[in-house]
Design brief:
Shape: globular
Bound molecules: cobalt (II) ion
Structural class: alpha+beta
Largest sheet: 5 strands, mixed
CATH class of the largest domain: Alpha Beta
CATH architecture of the largest domain: Alpha-Beta Complex
Length: 435
């Protein structure tokens, strides 16, 4: 079977409909059927014919390994030392008010490990003593309260999976493709399982006064990062969290307490949360006037643009993970939307002329990363890979040209454009923008 015929064959539906998942053996078999070879064709040396006897023992198979007291708190294998968050030194004046990007090219699935969750600090990472930490809730409330961590842990607990994306993710790409990297162009998105107490539960405890319409949420960092949030959102799905992926928050993620505002820009997910004040109007803080607003072509600025619009990106292949040689591959990627659930992801290998529907992998959760895949036989020719998400509201991810048409090119925030990866015949992958 030739690669050209893939489009006419409902291969994806067949695979999706199969009772059992496509196992590696099946993939190899499929590869053989398609290419007439037993080689996988994806990773060199990965699919040699098996010899008649088991391979010779490597040194680590001939001695005792380390005992259980060796690493009371586990860490990745030494050979994974290159899988780290990275920053772009020229992007910010200091590392204390800066960004680190998650290595999406090395991650699998929808959960970001705690040590690789992207960081955005405005005055560095405070290391807080939880016994001394307090959360004050006051303003237009019946019973102002100061809660300590023990108080907060006594409230009913909820656990939910949500992404957090910095509004500036992809911000360097508004005018032109700049950095040839998945990590630096998309790495300010991460997703975790959060545990804590609903903000609505805490607000019920203090009693919201009728005139209250807004909440000012403030962090205990040196910047006292603060934003205004509509009370409706606070009562809808916000969570005051103390745990991330099953353990206490990391210091760089807000230990001991942070606000999670599902589906809204990262900046409002206040870390080191220490104060919530209710009022009848927004506060117009620095971070919602001078920053985190969007300059429009007519000279005005959009303000209070909290929602993360639907976005997707192919995480394999990508500049950091090129193709090796022609053959069968699985295109993999992530999609998300602040509107709720991802409904569909389409993938193009010819720069958006033809599209195929990718397979969405369970779980498909509201305001969480969703994984998609599509089998692809690369014929060794130049290709332009793109993914395009459609969310449950019918919103379709725009091209960068569409985004510039509506919002101009002076923006930094809320770039949710379709990413194009150019594949060259040698398998290398480049970040490009199509006119
Ligand atoms: Co915004």
């Amino acid at each position: 079977m030739q690669p050209e015929s893939w489009r006419s064959i409902p291969l994806v539906s067949r695979l999706t409909a199969a009772a059992k998942p496509l196992a590696r053996r099946g993939f190899l078999k499929l590869s053989a059927a398609l290419t007439g070879s037993i080689a996988l064709g994806a990773n060199s040396g990965s699919a040699e014919p098996a010899p008649a006897s088991p391979p010779a023992d490597a040194p680590w198979s001939q001695s005792l390994g380390a005992g259980v007291v060796d690493r009371p708190y586990g860490r990745p294998a030494d050979h994974e030392a290159g899988v780290i968050r990275r920053n772009v030194p020229w992007l910010t004046a200091t590392t204390e008010s800066s960004i680190s990007f998650s290595p999406l090219q090395d991650l699998h699935g929808i959960i970001t490990p705690n040590g690789l969750f992207f960081e955005r600090h405005h005055a560095g990472r405070p290391d807080i003593d939880p016994d001394q930490h307090r959360l004050m809730i006051h303003g237009l409330v019946e019973r102002p309260l100061v809660l300590n961590m023990k108080d907060i842990l006594r409230f009913p607990q909820v656990t939910r999976i949500h992404f957090i994306e910095c509004a500036a993710n992809g911000g360097m790409e508004w005018r032109a493709a700049q950095l040839n990297s998945l990590q630096f162009n998309h790495g300010m998105i991460s997703c975790a399982e959060w545990s804590g107490v609903r903000l609505s539960t805490l607000l019920e405890e203090v009693g919201v006064k009728k005139q209250a319409k807004w909440a000012m949420v403030e962090g205990a960092d040196g910047a006292h990062m603060n934003r205004s949030l509509p009370l409706d959102k606070c009562l809808d799905d916000c969570i005051v969290v103390y745990a991330q992926n099953g353990e206490a928050l990391r210091p760089e993620q807000g230990y001991p307490l942070r606000l999670v505002v599902p589906g809204w820009e990262g900046n409002v997910n206040i870390k080191w949360l220490r104060r919530i004040k209710l009022g009848d109007k927004p506060w117009f803080s620095r971070e919602e006037t001078s920053k985190y607003t969007d300059p429009m072509p007519d000279g005005t600025s959009r303000g209070f643009t909290w929602l993360i619009d639907a976005k997707s990106v192919i995480t394999f292949p990508c500049p950091e993970k090129p193709l090796d040689r022609a053959g069968l591959y699985e295109i993999r990627g992530l999609a998300w939307t602040g509107n709720g659930k991802v409904k569909r992801v389409d993938v193009s290998t010819d720069g958006g002329i033809n599209w195929q529907t990718a397979r969405l992998h369970e779980p498909v959760l509201s305001k969480a990363l969703t994984k998609f895949t599509l089998p692809w036989h690369w014929d060794g020719q130049p290709a332009l890979l793109e993914s395009r998400v459609i969310d449950e509201t019918g919103y379709v991810q725009p091209t960068i040209a569409q985004l510039r048409n509506s919002r101009g090119s002076n923006s930094v925030y809320h770039n949710n454009a379709i990413q194009t990866w150019q594949i060259k015949p040698d398998g290398s992958v480049f970040n490009v923008q199509l006119a």
